[in-house]
Amino acid sequence: MKYSIGVDMGGTNTDMGLVSENGNIVLRRNIPTNAYTELEPYVRDMMREIKGMVEEQAARDGEAVDLEGIGIGAPNGNFYTGCVDNAPNLTIKGVLDFGKEIHKYLPVPVVLSNDANAAAYGEYVYGGAKGMKHFIMFTLGTGVGSGIVVDGKLVHGSTGGAGELGHNILVPHGRKCSCGREGCLETYTSARGIVQTYCELKASDECGVLSDELKSVTSKMIGELAHQGDPIALKTWETVADQLGMAMANSVTFSAPEAIFLMGGPTQVGEPLLKPLRKAFEKYLLNIYAGSCQIRMSELKANEVAILGAAALIKMKN
Amino acid sequence: MKYSIGVDMGGTNTDMGLVSENGNIVLRRNIPTNAYTELEPYVRDMMREIKGMVEEQAARDGEAVDLEGIGIGAPNGNFYTGCVDNAPNLTIKGVLDFGKEIHKYLPVPVVLSNDANAAAYGEYVYGGAKGMKHFIMFTLGTGVGSGIVVDGKLVHGSTGGAGELGHNILVPHGRKCSCGREGCLETYTSARGIVQTYCELKASDECGVLSDELKSVTSKMIGELAHQGDPIALKTWETVADQLGMAMANSVTFSAPEAIFLMGGPTQVGEPLLKPLRKAFEKYLLNIYAGSCQIRMSELKANEVAILGAAALIKMKN
Q1: Residue B205: φ, ψ to 5°
Q2: Residues 6 or more apart whose Cβ sits within 8 Å of residue B318
Q3: I want to staple B298 with a disulfide (CB 3.0 to 4.6 A). Which of A48, A117, B143, B263 is the partner?
Q4: Coil, helix or strand at residue B102
Q5: B197-250 pLDDT per residue, tens
Q6: What is the mean pLDDT of residues A46-69?
Q7: Hey, what CATH topology would domain A133-297 get?
Q8: Using CA atoms, how far apart are residues A57 and A250, in angstroms rounded to an integer?
């Protein structure tokens, strides 16, 4: 039977899965990324786990696994070169040529991209974007990522680094961003940006005095508070919705997608974000696009999307 | 010999040209768009001129013209439907099905798109973007338009209306735009936006009193003043450069193009705009794109780009 491997390379852990043709993760393994400082032993151990999964599945199926390839979602992953380029969050430094290293063990296609691109492609191959030719995925989490599909193809651009809408400047001379610039979407709609907005609203409500408990607040807690009817939490999500809605409307002027998908922790709050988001999106959308672009939640499970997205990348070779 | 027809449909005039394979406009004709209120007589007269050019060129060449097709750049032109959809600036109202009407006279391919998309494609087929796979064209004029090429294909999106970066919201709750929203790029970097910036700077310099002569100022005059060293004119172009540079940097986060092309009246000012623009673009560009995207001026002549762009559209069929 036909399978592909999806590898989700994070700074802490590397999750791997054997994925069936219909998008089921039939086996999973992981190794600790941050236990390695060199690519060779890291790939050696990764391949040991991958071979382990392939053999286990062959025994289950009673026939050899037809492995279509290995897809890798990684920070700073470059589709064109197949390399991870100097990712600041990894303990393995430098330009990492995965294809070359993996081919020492297994002669299968290797495709690599950044995690948000992989998530978008996973939605396309296995999720709610099946059959769509134009869509955009926004991933909200520690940062804000995006993946863009135009004419049924993931947009990589001339450098391989296209689709960084989290670093679209939303507010000229706005909040300081970790990228060194100001006003990026990420500073407003990432988990950290959402917490900052809540603290700012809370502080102005409490005459500028921030209580100690505010220092440990998370976007998840702000979500729970909103569901309990807390006015400052509700106001926080409305503010985030307004900012995200504007950014989403701006992205429509680029590629006129038929849908924008959302995924990631902060989107799990549901209606306190989604209700004002639909309103804001409509308000900021240029009239020629009215009614042409849906807002959709990712249809992949949160704990599967990274592996499925990585595994989906291999479908681009076909 | 092989030729194509480019039709530049403006609100006032319709310019037509017979274009040779290497991008020379060998014959030109025009009819007054605003003399028509119905599509039938308009296309009848358009086709009379087109047939006239074809016959004239056949006589010159001493052989029949091999006509590849007719490309039309038009306001609200929709690539997918081949129709002009309710363009507010045209005296011919409604949904105009050009393909159907033209095929009554000539059985050749007809391709239609909006004018900025056509300009971008003209640059790709006949101008400075030859051989590029990823680039963006910004057209500055009465409004601000754009055309986007990804993987060697013009981006039309799901509706046919992709590439409206002039209506990307640059400044949240900024200047009122003719589209009914606020803060669109167009309100800052169109000819009118540039004049507004100049008047605002002049007024604040003159304690809020706007002299009568300011009411008739044009972006061309502000360009001349800048070349004479006028400090307010220079400040105007610096302000415009900062705004356009930010918008251009934002567009790079989408498709990571290898170049951004500029065309249109206000860009003719040259260094007073381009020098601060290069600086602003570099300042606002996300570091992963540093050095990867050039700023280029259109290499097509201002009085030829619309016809060449329209004629180039026909190449998409091949």
Answers
A1: -75, -30
A2: none
A3: B263
A4: helix
A5: 999 999 877 665 566 667 789 999 999 999 999 999 999 999 999 999 999 999
A6: 97
A7: Nucleotidyltransferase; domain 5 (3.30.420)
A8: 46
State the burial class of residue B26 (Cβ atoms within 10 Å of its Cβ: 0-12, 13-18, 19+). Answer: middle
Q: Hey, is the C-beta of B287 within 8 angstroms of any chain A C-beta?
A: yes
Question: Any idea what DSSP says for residue A285?
Answer: S
Residue B318 pLDDT: 45
Selecting from 3.40.640.10, 3.30.420.40, 3.90.650.10, 3.30.450.40, what CATH number does the domain B132-297 have? 3.30.420.40
Report the C-alpha gap between A312 and A137 in whole angstroms: 15
Which residues of B fall within a CB distance of 8 Å from A157? Answer: 134, 150, 255-257
Chain mean position to CA B296: 15
ipTM, 2 dp: 0.93
Backbone angles phi, psi at A262, to 5 degrees: -125, 140
**pLDDT greater than 70 at residue A77:** yes
Inter-chain CB proximity B293 and A158 less than 8 Å: yes
| In contact, A46 and A92? CB cutoff 8 Å | no
Q: Do A255 and B254 touch (CB under 8 A)?
A: yes
- The CATH architecture to which B2-123+304-317 belongs is 2-Layer Sandwich (3.30)
Supply B304's token pair.
């030829």
**Distance from A131 to chain B by nearest Cα, in Å?**
12
pLDDT of B61 reads: 96
- CA dist list (Å): B97 to A198, B74, B270: 52, 12, 40
**pLDDT tens sequence across B5-33:** 999 999 899 999 999 999 999 999 999 99
Ranges of residues in chain B whose predicted pLDDT is under 50: 318
Looking at residue B118, the DSSP 8-state letter turns out to be H
Inter-chain residue contact A256 with B133, CB threshold 8 Å: no
The shortest CB-CB distance from A256 to any of B159, B253, B256 is to B159
pLDDT tens column, A243-285: 999 999 999 999 999 999 999 999 999 999 999 999 999 999 9
SS3 for A243? helix
| A174 close to B (CB below 8 A) | no
- Give the integer Cα–Cα distance in Å for B9 and B30: 10
Chain B residues within an 8 Å CB radius of A181: 284, 286
Residue A215 has pLDDT above 80, yes or no: no
CATH 3.30.420.40 placement within chain B: 2-123+304-317, 132-297
Backbone angles phi, psi at B290, to 5 degrees: -50, 130
Report whether A121 contacts A316 (CB < 8 A). yes
Residue position matching structure tokens 């167009």: B186
Contact check, Cβ <8 Å, B161/A254:
no
pLDDT of residue B316: 86
Residue A213 has pLDDT above 70, yes or no: no
Cα A200 to the chain's mean position, in Å? Answer: 27
Q: In A, which residues are within 8 Å of B169 by CB distance?
A: 246, 249-250, 284
Q: In which residue ranges of chain A is CATH 3.30.420.40 found? A: 2-123+304-317, 133-297
What are φ and ψ of residue B245, in 5° steps?
-65, -40
For B284, nearest residue in chain A (alpha carbons): A181
Best of A144, A244, A286, A316 to mutate (most B CBs within 10 Å, chain B):
A286
Q: What is the CA radius of gyration of chain A?
A: 21
